[in-house]
Amino acid sequence: MKGDNTLKFDKAAESPLEEQSLDYIEAVAGKFPGYRRAHARGNCYQGVFTPNGKAAALTDAPHLQEEAVPVIVRFSNSSSNPNHSDGLTPPKGMAVQFILPNDQITNLVCTNIPVFFARTPETFTEVLELAASAKKGVPDLTSFLKIAKQVPESTAFIDLMKEVRLPASYAMAQYFSIHAFYFINSSGRRQAVKYIWNPDEGMSTYTKKDAIKLLHNFLDEELDERLESGPAGFTLNIQLGNEDDPVDDPTIEWPGDRQQITIGHLSITGKMENCPDDLVFDPTILPQGIECTDDPILHFRHLAYSASSDRRLREKEGRGKGDQASI
Ligand code: HEM
Fold first, then answer.
1. What is annotated as the active site (predicted)?
2. Residue 161 is assigned to a structural domain of this protein
């Protein structure tokens, strides 16, 4: 499979920001018809989330009371290029869709890095534009980070990226929501929270040197094998923000001493044959009892994920649905 790296820049200037950002992603990483424009390669798994009731005082959200709910989990390599090897891009994604008792859904979309590199959609798009125009051949992570460095707010992200290592398993990494959300309880009290998934198996990583020797889809195979001998589990924690903690800035982590509460457990039981074509993990789809903060990146994701999904569904039309297991 080969990506088409050409971009019509004149077209980008006319289109909404989310379309421009996707055009720049395609210019940087290549165009891979039918694939997500970010986190292109991944697999879906089924599982069950069991809340422990400890969030009930803070939120009315149906999946955070007492009853267990089914979930779909998608683990993904963060690269927009589905051919990129697991070992080359340590950032990984864990997207969870909770199927609520009323058949509605809500999504919690996390990565193993606790901050993002841009505070606004405009900065995000500018960094990609710079990367697209600087590009000679497919830029690697190091050259992308050099460009991101031009944005002062990306310091925390860049420092973490220098340290992040490939997880030994998708089931052996911590995953963070990055964004804050509001929990709202039956009395209308609002509490800002961030989410953290903690793996039952603990955390383990590869050194950079070992990571590049691994197979292209090493993590997919590792998880397949792991699930043959039983479920993979994560506990879900929330971190409670103080009054002064920023709720609209994904480039800043809250201080590590903020109170954390464990609110439930996820058990991943098996792999799905295919990810449904129309599965979109929009992080702004929230039930009663949870609301978005004013974080502009969070709101922009709603637009970008929808535009990406439109592109890939259009591309898949006529090619036969469900024919690529790991899209
Ligand atoms: C300007 C901000 C961002 C943009 C424009 C963006 C863009 C995208 C796009 C286009 C997709 C593919 C959507 C689809 O086709 O279904 C995607 C997937 C994903 N993004 Fe982002 N993203 C942004 C920020 C973030 C942040 C802050 C996180 C971390 C919490 C994140 C984590 C993920 C994950 C885990 C996936 C894979 C979801 C799946 O498995 O379907 N993204 N992103």
1. 39
2. yes
Number of domains in the chain: 1
Which residues lie closer than 8 Å to 113 by C-beta, 6 or more apart? 91, 157, 160, 161, 164, 176, 178
pLDDT confidence of 141, banded at 50, 70, 90? Answer: confident
Q: Domain for residue 215, yes or no?
A: yes
Cα of 28 from ligand 1 centre, angstroms: 16
- Around ligand 1, the residues with Cβ closer than 6 Å are 21, 36-39, 42, 74, 76, 93, 95, 109-111, 116, 121, 124, 177-178, 250, 280-281, 297, 300-301, 304-305, 308-309, 312
The confidence score (pLDDT) of residue 212 equals: 84
206 labelled as ligand-binding?
no
Q: Is residue 149 part of a domain?
A: yes
Return the residue whose CA atom lies nearest to atom 37 of ligand 1: 39
155-163 and 141-148 are packed helices; what angle lies between their axes, rounded to 10 degrees? 160
- d(CA 180, CA 238) in angstroms, rounded, equals 10
**Full residue range of the structural domain in which residue 148 is found:** 9-316
Which of 186, 170, 33 shows the shortest CA–CA distance to 111?
A: 170
Q: What is the pLDDT of residue 147?
A: 86
Q: 24 is written with which tokens?
A: 């720049």
Q: How far apart are CA 98 and CA 236, in angstroms?
A: 13
Provide the pLDDT for residue 9.
41
Residue 304 belongs to a domain with what CATH number?
2.40.180.10
What φ, ψ does residue 275 adopt, rounded to 5°? -80, 130
pLDDT per position as a tens digit, 150-169: 899 999 999 999 999 999 99
- How many residues are given for the chain? 327
2 in a domain, yes or no? Answer: no
Cα distance between residue 38 and residue 283, in whole Å:
14
Averaged pLDDT for residues 55-72: 98
